[in-house]
Amino acid sequence: MMRKRLPAKVKVSIFLIFLFILFLHLIFNHIFTVKPKIALLHGDVSLYSEKTGLWTKAVMGQELASGDVLKTGGNSFADIEERGKYTVRVKSNTELSHTKPLPKFIPGSVRYNTQKGKALVWIQKGFKGSKFKIKTPTAIIGARGTKFLIDISPKMDFMTRIGVLEGNVAVVSSSTLGALRDKEVMVEGGQATEVYANNAPLTPRELLDKEWNEMIEFYQIGKPAQVALLISDGINRTRELLRPCPLYISDVEPRTVSVSLEETIRIIDDAIKTQDKVKHLAGIKRLEQILIDYPNPSYEPQILLFTGAYYNYLGMYDEALTAFMKVFDTYPETTFASMALYASGIVYDEKMKDHAKAVHYYDLVLKNYPESPEARSIKAMNK
After folding, report:
1. pLDDT per residue over 19-28, tens digit each?
2. Would you put residue 183 in left (φ > 0), alpha (ψ -120 to 50) or beta?
3. Per CATH, which fold does 33-212 belong to?
4. How far apart, in whole angstroms, are the C-alpha atoms of residue 344 and residue 364?
5. CB of 243 within 8 A of CB of 230?
6. Would you say the pTM of this structure is higher than 0.85?
7. Where along the chain do its domains lie?
8. Signed CA dihedral, 29, 30, 31, 34: sign only
């Protein structure tokens, strides 16, 4: 039985319909999706274009289309960003491919793949309602608003380590086995997990000091506050403050902090390295004078919390409590206030052995800041 051939007009019509659909697809991708750009680069950075099939030297402002791959050499890095939505800092010896762009006018999802290396991901407020996913050889990481690090170790069968500075991320195995893909782990601020090949993610653990230091770089990405406490945004942040935590001064221009403040932070950093408590005390006294000489509400609560933490470290508990209470009294509407109250409770409870007073401050946290990370920590402690 002979097949009937399609008339030439029908063939032409089908071909024209195909071209029209292709044209609409190209127009949609060009007009209605957002292409991330290279916002910053340093050293040996190259870009593979799926369209041309060629590797070229990456340049500032260059866009990444779906399927493009960014590669960094040794001692190199690059920032990929959709302004106000997210930034990915691609560290040295890393390859990152962009596999799905974000819609321009509506919430959607954006996806990246990385086969090796390390990256810092900062998802910002403008990303609200959308989803961010990044796939590695052993894991799939999903987030909506957070700061997290991924680090792939080829020496350990491409094990992926995920550390979270703020917010939380959902992690599953990238294995094709359905049973593993169903075992999702939530990693909160101040925690990390590892995912080995063909295994579910490990139970989240607290970040190690070395891992905290790895993520200090987040405070250099974008335009963060000029003065920042290097702590997470999770329920352990007040404990991290009392270690005591480092204080970071951004190098973003224009400068809004005094030279005296920068010099003082250097003195304290040196005291940390040498365990010199005399230098610690001298640095804290200088910080207190700076707040008198250069009052600035954009960094005063951070510095007050910082000085309180160091007074606690030095065993000067009354001075620590004074600093913490000034934060609560002066900045009650900020996120720092609940930290100050909780820190006061911890000092009374664990240093001054006055549990009754500690409970008073814990109750103030629960009453005034019931949704704060500190309130969650107190509730967990009382279970």
Report:
1. 666 555 444 4
2. beta
3. Jelly Rolls (2.60.120)
4. 11
5. no
6. no
7. 33-212, 228-382
8. positive
